[in-house]
Design a protein that fits this description.
The structure holds two protein chains of two kinds. By secondary structure, chain A is α/β, with parallel strands linked by helices. Chain A folds into four domains: 131 residues, Fumarate Reductase Iron-sulfur Protein, Chain B, domain 2 (Orthogonal Bundle); 158 residues, no CATH class; 121 residues, Rossmann fold, CATH 3.40.50.10700; 125 residues, Rossmann fold (3-Layer(aba) Sandwich). Chain A is built from 28 helices and 15 strands. A five-stranded parallel sheet of chain A has the order 12-11-13-14-15, with helices on both faces. Chain A has a four-stranded parallel sheet with strand order 2-1-3-4. Chain A has a four-stranded parallel sheet with strand order 7-6-8-9, with helices on both faces. Chain A is globular and about 80 Å long. Chain B is α/β, with parallel strands linked by helices. Chain B has one domain: Leucine Aminopeptidase, subunit E, domain 1. Chain B is built from five helices and seven strands; from the N terminus they run E-E-E-H-H-E-E-H-E-H-E-H. A seven-stranded mixed sheet of chain B has the order 1-2-7-6-3-5-4, sandwiched between helices. In chain B, strand 4 and strand 5 form a beta hairpin. In chain B, helix 3 packs parallel to helix 4 and helix 4 crosses helix 5. The longest helix of chain B is centred in the middle third of the chain and has 18 residues. Chain B starts with a strand and ends with a helix. Classes of the chains: A alpha/beta, B alpha/beta. Chains A and B meet through helix 1, helix 10 and helix 15 of A and helix 1 of B.
């Protein structure tokens, strides 16, 4: 039977592959003997042991077939033996390979450690992703996120004014906490010693980590700054295989560091951010003399060792375990420092097994969190990780990676592990011992003086908030918190009612749960965004539900203005609501 | 300053965020389904408001090599010219890119635009080779300006050195 003609996309991929064939890559392409020793290393194989398509060698063979058919003599001499006669030819073939390359591998590189031939399967899979991305064959989430990073300089589409606003917000909170403004976050401070680069997830969904880092820098008396541009330490080029994006993203950080004249870039706790900025970025960017770089974990550890900050581990008494980010541990050999730091700031550390370079993937790596179409398979493949965590008995899983935070949080909920995820910056900030401020001596008030009642702070006074949640107790809790803060509260227990109430009453903010029976929160959110009367009402999503990824990454409509995971902290909820409403008003005016 | 004079007209290279440019109109590289999407499209939606996507929804589609116009909502520009350039190494990318640039220039003339800003069309996510893009864009714009255009100044807004350097070289060749 004759094979179909090669499509234009396949020809373009072959041309692109020719540019990727370094000696190391060719070594991995020709070195595999299909011995199967990598199989048990892969969390997908462990979850689907009867499916041969989950084996690392099968995944790498997709690229091998293309290579053999076009660049290797064996493909001409014995094509049936080396698979060259099954190389992709049509656009349908590419769609199948897309699901293999993006949907059955997190590029965690665990299989690489167990290969007796030294085959780096994750590198081959990344190259295949790069070839597919080159011709536009990729999951929608990867396309959306890559475009954000190419054009706006960060992978979550954070606008410069929103980033700066968040830093100012965190500075204000620090001032409130400390009673002075000395810990305010310096932006674009030329000549500072350290430039601190972060993951945009911190701006968008977890700004407390920025505040905690600022507190630690201030406590250590460090000369530091955050850049107004080139601040994103993440790099979606690592995940999509697009070396062009990899180079341009890394160079933005390096250029900004040189412009500010800093001595060092400190990378906040992000596994792929560390690998991309510190290890791979210099190669993609063609840098000869990169700026010195280190992880914030090393910075915090140094502060303690040099006596620049004091910590009290009794403030973190619960049992903790440590999950190694694949990019930190396996690809960068960075696994002892976080343990050393963890032991200094906690009381009960329990190692998980296996660990360090042999630890299993959180299953959220390699951009998996941005590919919502593969969520069920991802969570199924997480069983081995769940078993590892459960065996430790830990209440807190600590990790130095934002992707891992999301991946672990999802699997903890999915498998009902009943623990939470923290990063080292959370624990160090919590353990931080600041110089004690002398309390003024109490002076008894004369009996005849009446003390005026202190006005109750009502940060949401005059605001109208719609609470949408199907659970009565959660709805009551949120209503109470918002009413105590001065807001008028409307409620809805399902999506249809929520849209109707929002249309009629035009609230200042909608607090939206995502997992509801009937029309779920994602559908409700999209409808709110597409309904003319409600499209501009800010929404704060309150959930821990994995389906939320679709809203973040596929971006069918503009993303929500805020996000909070359950269980919700009351103060944080009010602060978020207040900030979102004020920020929206400032934008409109 | 990197610029090329074409008679009384100017092609100028600048750095910055194209959605914040103080120009009469700027060009956005759109897809056939005229969805603004992420990247600059996300910035247009967030800074410019929801009216822009609504106008695009009314227009419905824009074939490769063509361009359509909307107002610019709350942005500093008056118009956005949505040009559909070639994407992901599709066939005939040089001809399609030249066609998209010409279509964008034609829409600008129809609206009486004097200052127009272009991004390097397609050189990021969409994988258009930089050398091809610089040559086609600078030459096509230059030809248009020398041919009795009412446009007075065309800016090319490079987001990074990666684009700035080759565009600077090409513009200076013709200066």
């Amino acid at each position: 039977m004759s094979r179909p003609a090669k499509t234009h996309k396949v020809k373009m991929m072959e041309q692109q592959l020719a540019k990727k064939l370094t000696r190391q890559v060719v070594g991995s392409l020709v070195g595999c003997v299909h011995c199967g020793m990598c199989n048990d290393a892969c969390h997908y194989v462990l979850a689907f042991p009867d499916d041969p398509k989950m084996t690392p060698s099968y995944k790498a063979d997709q690229l091998r077939k293309l290579f053999k058919a076009n660049f290797d003599w064996t493909g001409k001499a014995i094509p049936w033996w080396v698979g060259a006669d099954k190389a992709p030819l049509t656009d349908d073939d590419l769609e199948v390979i897309k699901d293999i390359s993006f949907g059955t591998c997190t590029n965690c590189r665990r299989c690489t450690l167990s290969c007796p031939m030294g085959v780096d399967t994750a590198t081959l899979n990344r190259i295949m992703r790069g070839l597919l991305s080159h011709v536009g064959v990729m999951p929608e989430g990867v396309r959306v996120v890559s475009k954000d990073q190419w054009e706006l300089g960060n992978q979550m589409g954070v606008l410069k004014e929103d980033y700066v606003d968040t830093l100012e917000w965190m500075s204000e909170e620090l001032e409130e906490d400390l009673g002075h403004g000395e810990a305010a976050i310096p932006v674009d401070k030329a000549g500072a010693k350290i430039m601190y680069c972060i993951n945009p997830r911190e701006v968008k969904y977890d700004p407390r980590t920025i505040k905690e880092a600022a507190l630690i820098f201030w406590a250590a008396g460090e000369s530091w700054t955050m850049p107004s541009e080139g601040w994103d330490n993440t790099n979606f080029g690592l995940f999509s295989g697009d070396d062009g994006l990899g180079g341009v993203s890394a160079r933005r950080e390096y250029d900004k560091a040189r412009q500010l004249g800093v001595e060092k870039i400190v990378i906040s706790e992000c596994g792929h951010g560390f690998r991309s900025t510190r290890c791979e970025g210099v190669n993609w960017a063609g840098e000869q003399q990169p700026v010195p770089m280190e992880s914030a974990v090393m910075t915090m550890l140094r502060f303690i060792k040099e006596g620049r900050i004091k910590v009290d581990p009794t403030r973190n008494p619960e049992r903790v375990t440590f999950h190694d980010s694949c990019n930190n541990a396996r690809s960068c050999g960075f696994y002892e420092e976080p343990r050393e730091l963890l032991k200094l700031v906690t009381m009960d550390f329990q190692e998980m097994y296996p660990n360090r370079a042999e630890n299993y993937c959180c299953t959220g790596g390699g951009g998996a969190m941005s590919m919502s179409e593969y969520t069920p398979r991802r969570l199924e493949s997480a069983k081995v990780k769940a078993d590892q965590i459960r065996a430790t008995g830990a209440k807190v899983v600590v990790t130095s990676c934002h992707n891992c935070v999301d991946g672990l949080s999802d699997l903890i909920k999915h498998y009902g592990l009943g623990c939470e995820v923290k990063q080292l910056v959370n624990l160090v900030a919590n353990a931080l011992v600041l110089d004690e401020v002398k309390e003024p001596e109490a002076v008894p008030a004369p009996a005849e003086i009446e003390v005026a009642p202190v006005a109750v702070a009502s940060p949401l006074a005059g605001r109208k908030i719609l609470v949408v949640d199907d659970e009565d107790d959660v709805r009551l809790f949120l209503t109470t918190v918002f009413e105590d803060a001065g807001a008028q509260v409307l409620t809805a227990s399902d999506g249809d009612t929520a849209v109707a109430v929002a249309r009629e009453h035009q609230p200042d903010l909608i607090s939206l749960d995502l997992s509801m029976p009937g029309k779920d929160g994602v559908e409700t959110f999209v409808e709110l965004r597409r309904t003319p009367e409600t499209e501009e009402i800010p929404v704060c999503v309150v959930t821990g539900h994995p389906e939320f990824r679709q809203v973040i990454y596929d971006r069918p409509v503009a993303p929500p203005e805020g996000y909070l995971g359950k269980p919700v902290d009351e103060d944080k909820l009010v602060a978020y609501a207040h900030h979102i409403i004020e920020h929206r008003e400032a934008k409109v005016h | 300053m990197v610029e090329q004079r074409v008679g009384q007209k100017t092609i100028r290279l600048v750095r910055g965020d194209i959605t914040e440019m103080e120009v009469d109109a700027f060009v956005f590289d759109i897809t056939e389904d005229v969805k603004l999407g992420s990247g600059f499209g996300g910035a247009i939606q967030q800074r410019g408001g929801v009216a822009i996507q609504k106008q695009l929804d009314t227009i419905g589609s824009c074939p490769t090599g063509e361009a359509v116009v909307t107002e610019a909502g709350l942005l500093k520009a008056s118009w956005i010219i949505h040009a559909n350039g070639p994407k992901f190494r599709e066939e005939d990318e040089e001809a399609k890119l030249a066609s998209a640039v010409r279509a964008a220039l034609a829409r600008a003339e129809e609206k009486g635009v004097k200052r127009l800003a272009f991004p390097p069309i397609g050189t990021g996510l969409y994988q258009v080779p930089l050398d091809l893009c610089t040559r086609v864009m600078v030459d096509t714009i230059s030809e248009h300006l020398s041919d009795g255009a009412s446009l007075e100044e065309v800016l090319i807004v490079a987001p990074d050195d990666r684009e700035y350097k080759p565009f600077a070289a090409r513009i200076q060749e013709g200066a």
